[in-house]
Automatic annotation (TrEMBL):
PANTHER family: INTEGRASE_RECOMBINASE PROTEIN MJ0367-RELATED, PHAGE INTEGRASE-RELATED. It comes from Bacillus salitolerans. Keywords: DNA integration, DNA recombination, DNA-binding. Belongs to the 'phage' integrase family. Residues 5-91 form the Core-binding (CB) domain. Residues 109-281 form the Tyr recombinase domain. InterPro entries: CB, DNA_brk_join_enz, Integrase-like_cat_sf, Integrase_catalytic, Integrase_recombinase_N, Integrase_SAM-like_N, Tyrosine_recombinase_XerCD. It comes from the Bacteria. It holds the Pfam family Phage_int_SAM_1. This is Tyrosine-type recombinase/integrase.
Length: 286
C-alpha cells in the first residue's frame, strides 16, 4: 500500500541511514517494513496527513492496534524497536514516552546529512532552474536549519534587516504564541531572500506564497525538493552538522535548531570527535 506523498522519500532516507550505520540486511528489511506499516496505519486511519503530524497519541494508537490484533510480544517488541529508532531519526524522541525505552539501540543511529560536494551540487541545480522563491526556500532551510513547518509559517514581518545589511528571522514555537528564537541569516540566504521579497506582488502577510497565491504548505515544499532528491530533514541535519563541525558549542546549536532536549543535538557530534574529547580530558587532568 502506498504511503502519503511525503513519506516515501523519508522511508528511503531512513533506510539509507540504517545501511550507513552498519545494520544487517535482515534488520534493514525488518525496520523498513515495520516503519512503512506504521506510517500506512496512521495515514489510512486519518491520524496524520504527513510525517510532521506524528505525535504521541498516534504512536500509542498504533501500538494498541497491534495488541488488539493479538500480535505476539516479540512482534510488538520488534515494532517498538523500529519505531523508536525512526522517531529518533525524525527528531521526535520525546514521543517515545508511550514506548519502552531502549537507549542502547536508539543512540546508534545518527542523522544523515549532505556532503559538502552534494550541498554545492544542490545549490547549483536550484539556482540553475532560476525559480527565485525556491532558491530562497532552499537557502533558508540549509542555512538556518528551520523545520519545514516553521518555514511555511513565516511571515514577512518575521524578517528583520539591520542597518549594516545583516538579517535575522524570527521563528516562533509552534506550540506557544510567546516563545520564539532568532536565527541570523547568512550572506547568501539574506541575498536570495531579499531578491525574493522584491519579486512579490501580494498583500498577503505570508512570506512564501504558492502558485495559487496562498501560504505555501509543507507538502508543496517537500514536493519541490523531491525534484532535487532531498528532503527538508536532510537540509536541517546538514545545518546542525556544519555548526558542530565548525566548533559551535552544543548549547548554541541546540538553541538555533529549537531542540527541546540537548541530547538530540549531541547526535551531531561524530564518534571521532567524542573520542578526541575523551583523550583531551584525560590528558588535561592526568
Amino acid at each position: 500500500m502506498r504511503t502519503g506523498n511525503n513519506t516515501n522519500d523519508v522511508l528511503q532516507l531512513f533506510g539509507k541511514s540504517l545501511i550507513e550505520q552498519g545494520k544487517s540486511v535482515g534488520t534493514f528489511k525488518t525496520y523498513s517494513k515495520v516503519v512503512e506499516h506504521f506510517l500506512n496505519y496512521l495515514i489510512v486511519n486519518k491520524i496524520i496527513n504527513n510525517i510532521d503530524d506524528i505525535d504521541a497519541k498516534g504512536v500509542h494508537e498504533y501500538v494498541e492496534s497491534l495488541k488488539q490484533e493479538n500480535k505476539s510480544s516479540s512482534t510488538i517488541e520488534k515494532h517498538i524497536a523500529a519505531i523508536n529508532i525512526f522517531l529518533c531519526y525524525i527528531e521526535k524522541p520525546h514521543i517515545r514516552t508511550y514506548l519502552p525505552r531502549k537507549q542502547k539501540e536508539n543512540t546508534k543511529l545518527r542523522p544523515q546529512s549532505l556532503t559538502k560536494e552534494e550541498e554545492i551540487q544542490l545549490l547549483h541545480e536550484i539556482e540553475l532552474d532560476g525559480n527565485i522563491r525556491n532558491i530562497a526556500i532552499v537557502y533558508l532551510l540549509l542555512h538556518t536549519g528551520i523545520r519545514v513547518s516553521e518555514l511555511c509559517n513565516l511571515n514577512k514581518t518575521d524578517i528583520k534587516i539591520g542597518s549594516s545589511d545583516e538579517g535575522q528571522i524570527v521563528v516562533r514555537d509552534e506550540g506557544s504564541l510567546h516563545n520564539s528564537r532568532m536565527i541570523p541569516l547568512s550572506t547568501f540566504a539574506l541575498k536570495h531572500l531579499l531578491r525574493y521579497l522584491d519579486s512579490l506582488d501580494t498583500d498577503s502577510n505570508a512570506l512564501f506564497i504558492s502558485s495559487f497565491n496562498q501560504r505555501i504548505t509543507t507538502r508543496a515544499v517537500q514536493y519541490m525538493l523531491k525534484k532535487y532528491n532531498v528532503h527538508p530533514h536532510l537540509l536541517r541535519h546538514t545545518f546542525c552538522y556544519r555548526l558542530v563541525d565548525h566548533g559551535v558549542d552544543l548549547n548554541t546549536v541546540s538553541k538555533l535548531a529549537g531542540h527541546k532536549d540537548i541530547n538530540i543535538t549531541k547526535r551531531y557530534v561524530k564518534k571521532d570527535a567524542e573520542h578526541n574529547m575523551t583523550i583531551a580530558i584525560k590528558r588535561t587532568f592526568a
